[in-house]
Amino acid sequence: MKEWEKYVRKVVPYVPGEQPKEKVIKLNTNENPYPPAPRVFEALKELDATDFRKYPDPAASELVDAIASFYGVESENVFVGVGSDDVISMAFLTFFNSEKPILFPDISYSFYSVWADVYGVKYECPKLDENFGICAADYKRENGGIIFPNPNAPTSIAQPLEFIEDIVKSNEDSVVIIDEAYIDFGGESALELTKKYDNLLVVQTFSKSRSMAGMRIGYAIGNKKLIRAMLDVKYSINSYTMNIPSIKLGKLAIEDRAYFEECTGKIVATRERVAKELKKLGFVMPDSKANFLFASHSKVPAKELFEALKKGGIYVRYFPKERIDNFLRITIGTDEEMDAFIAFVKEYLEKR
Amino acid sequence: MKEWEKYVRKVVPYVPGEQPKEKVIKLNTNENPYPPAPRVFEALKELDATDFRKYPDPAASELVDAIASFYGVESENVFVGVGSDDVISMAFLTFFNSEKPILFPDISYSFYSVWADVYGVKYECPKLDENFGICAADYKRENGGIIFPNPNAPTSIAQPLEFIEDIVKSNEDSVVIIDEAYIDFGGESALELTKKYDNLLVVQTFSKSRSMAGMRIGYAIGNKKLIRAMLDVKYSINSYTMNIPSIKLGKLAIEDRAYFEECTGKIVATRERVAKELKKLGFVMPDSKANFLFASHSKVPAKELFEALKKGGIYVRYFPKERIDNFLRITIGTDEEMDAFIAFVKEYLEKR
Question: Global pTM?
Answer without folding.
Answer: 0.95
